[in-house]
Each structure stands twice: as structure tokens, then as C-alpha cells.
Drug:H+ antiporter-2 (14 Spanner) (DHA2) family drug resistance MFS transporter (Clostridium thermobutyricum), 564 residues
Amino acid sequence: MSKKASKILLVMFLLGIFMGSLDTAIISPARTIMGNTLHISADASIWIITLYSLIYAVSMPIIGKLADRHGLKTMFTFSILLFGIGSLLCGISNFYNSFSFLLIARAIEAIGAGGVMPVATAFVGMSFPPEKRGAALGMVGGINGIATLIGPSLGSFILDTFGGNNWHLLFFINIPICIVVLISLITIKVDKFETTKKALDIYGSIVSGLFIVSLMLFITNLNFVHLWTSFKSVKCFPYLVIAIILLPILIFVESRAEDPVINLKYFKRREMLSVFIIAFLVGAGLMIVVFLPQFCSNVLKLKLGSGGYFVTLMAVFSGFAAPFGGKLIDKFSAKFILVTGFIFTIIGTLTLALIVTSTLSVIPLVIGLAFMGLGIGFTMGTPLNYVIQTSVPKEEIGSAQSTLSLIRSLGVALSPNLLVGFISAAGADVSGKLMAVLPKTHGLTHAISSGVSGSSMVNSFQNANVTTIFSLVKNFVSEQFNKMAPQLSEGLRGVPLHQRTNILASMKENYIHQLDGLRITIENIYQKTMNSGFEKMFLTLCLIAVIALIVALFLPNKKKEISK
């Protein structure tokens, strides 16, 4: 393959990776809007994300194994084609206003996506000489990181610009990219790599698929705020039981398979097992991006949505760090980059947890996000992919890469439920702290206290913003006055009716006036209370980074070439 063809092919694979990563990041924030236009409940709309995640996770090891059998380029072309068809159908479903149509389309899209990232990463690694392999994989990591981080902001921009009813545009932007990539893949011929001709592992594909689905459903339904209650609920426990039953069956089937979908020998090697553990932890830590816009808005008292621009800033540092880290791998080692990246992540999370939450200053915030961006760029994919590709024969790279992506996806699935628990706990604390400062009025204090502590108000506090909390409280108090008006009027028995109305109106006006004087106090209480939740969240991420750092220390500190 010529140098020109090699460069064009690299661009095409990077475009495919960018598209796949962007699609996941851009759709998640739009789920609520899509649900509203399709007239479905919030519980139903979560399946727009859940179904995609499940099928994506199941398809990765299977497509990875098929890539080992039929060639990486062939399966990548198939995956891009399937992803493009799925994206087109997802967009069309908006015109038919059909939720079931959308779910079928998302399933098709997810199967295609399951082959994009792992197969592309394997191909890029195999297409470049050892002395340039780290830099090439670094570009893969950089593109993936940038797409993941800017996706939510881009999705919000598109919906704000064209309107929520035009959410089909979020899917249609994939179509021209798919067409360009497919044309290039068809016209460029590549050197043939050795592929395996062993029997297809049908039973392993079925059992592994069922096991992954059961495990993912258990993980995604866990509620860490009410851990034991959710653990034993019908939404969690049955899936755990099924996964436990399937695990020994999976081990038995795969240990006897001639060419297993999930190769158990990978888990027996210390080096690869360490990489899998790190991948799970990195996946769990990456989901902090979901909560960063809210954190930035809370710290700087920005309107809801403006905090996303700071996530874009972090994406810039991540996009720089990934390819730079890849070049450093070629010079030093994957272990060196991982250790450095986790140190950066620890510095960043500690800065956000201990300094930003107390000083509420933009400079420490930017510094903390910069270190986190560097840490994510160094650790998210490049060094892990490099170690995997230097630890297995060429004919197994597709399946090994897919196993790595699957384990990272399990971390991604677990993380939001874990991290949102800190926000939920802080939101629950807001009500009690607000009641301590609200004006006291005879006959109304108990009603306001009961309402503020109610589940609907707690949910409102969790989803509010420091710039909207006062209007939320003010509207709530006004509603409580209106609800309590008959009882308050009864307390004024003996007073003429027209005077009662005037007295009640005066009471409400005086209370609201006192409340207006507490605006800054209410905002500060909300800001401080929510920041306590964010502080615990970042300290948890710091602990995850420390554990990953310790595991990384067990990796060999040397460069290796791809196995011949």
C-alpha cells in the first residue's frame, strides 16, 4: 500500500471513529427532547440509550472475531454501511413519529457501531510500522476523546438552532460521513493480513451475548443512593442471577471452543488482565463528562447550558494529549504514559474537589479541567490499545481489541449510576438547609417544609441550577400559599370576607418580599450544598485514578513490537 493510500485510509478510519463516538455523545443529552416529541414517558425514553448500549456491547466481541476471520477492512466497511443505514432510519423515524421504528433503527445502528471503534483501532495499529504505531494510535485516541467531549455541546447547539422537533438532524449528520468513508474504503486496496479459518464459535456468541446483556442490565439498573433496595428489586436481582448462572456456562463453552469469541487465555496473562482492569476504571472515570457542565455552571453561577463550554476546553487538552502521548509511547513506553496520565488525573480531580469547590474561582477551574483533559487524553485509549496489540498475534488483534472495548463499556455503564448518587444526596440535603433560612409564617411553615422535602422537589433541586434555584423556590412558595389559602382563611373566622382576602394577599406579599431579600443566601446555600456532592464525586474519581495508577505499575516498562 502506497504512502498516499495509507494516509487517506488513516483519515477514513479516523472519520469513522469520530462519527461513532460523536453519535453516542450527541444523542444522550437529546434523549428527553426525543421522548417528548415521540410522546413517550421518561422511563420509556431511556431505552433509546439502553438498547443501543446493550446491542453495542454484545456486537463488539462478535464483530471483532468476524474481523479476525474475514479481514479488518471487510468488517469495518460492513460496520460503516450498517451504521449509516441505522442512522438514516433513526432520522426517518422522526417523520413517522414512531418510537418502535426508532428502537429498531437504533439496534441496527448499534450493531454497526460495535465494529467501528475496535476494528478501526486494530487496523490502524497493524497498518503502521512499530516506530510509528504509538503516534497512529494516539490520533485514534485523540479523535475519540474530542468527539466524546464535544458531543453534548454540539447536540445542544443543533437543537437550540434548529429546534427540538428536528432531532433527526443529529442522526442525518452521520450520512455524508458514511458515504465518504465507504467510497474511500471501496476504492483503496490494502495488503491482506493473515486471517483465521477455524470453526465459528456459534455457542460462544449466543452465551456471551446473553451474559453481556444480563450483566449490563444489572449494572445500568443499580441505584447507588438506595443500593440495597435497588439490588434486590426486580429490575436488578434477576439479571444478576442470570449472569451468575451464565458465567460458568460461558467459561465451559469458551474453554472448549476452537476459536472462542471471548478468549479466556487473555485473562490469564498478567499484562492483559492489568490492561482490562485499567480499561474498566478508565471507562468509569470518563463519564464525569456528563456532570461537568452542571458543576461548572454551579461554581461560576452560570446559566444552565453554559458550563458545556468548559467541557469543550477540556476536550482541547484531551485532543492534544492523545496524539502527543502516542508519540511518547514510541519513545518511552505505554506504562510511562499511563502512569503520567493518572498522575495528571489525580492532580485535576483534587484541584476540582479541594480548591475549586471552596474558592469558586475560574482560574483553578480551568487548571483542574486542563489536568483532567491531559489525563483523559493520556489514558483513555492509546496506551491500552498499544499494549493489547503488542500482546497477541496479528490474527487475534480484532477480537482482543473488541474484548478491551467491551470491558471499557462495562465501566462506562456502571459509572453514571455511581456518580449521580452524590448529586442525588446533595439535592436531598438542599431542602433541609433551605428551610432553616426561609421566613417563618404561622400556619404555613409546616406546609412549606413538607413540600420542600417531597420527592418531586428533591428531584427539582437535583436538576436545578444556581441561577434558577431562587425562582424555583419562589414559585413553589407562591403555589403553597395558594393551596393553603382556604385553611388560612378559616383561621381568620370572624373577619369580614373581603378583609380576609386583603389580609391573605398582604401576608403573601410580605412573605415574598422577605424571600426576595434572601435571594443571595438561597443561591449560596444551594451552591455550597451541591458543591459538597461534587467534591465527593471528584474524590471518588481520584480514588479510581489512584487504583488505576497502582495497577499500571504492574505493567512491563518496555516497548515491544507487534507479535509476528
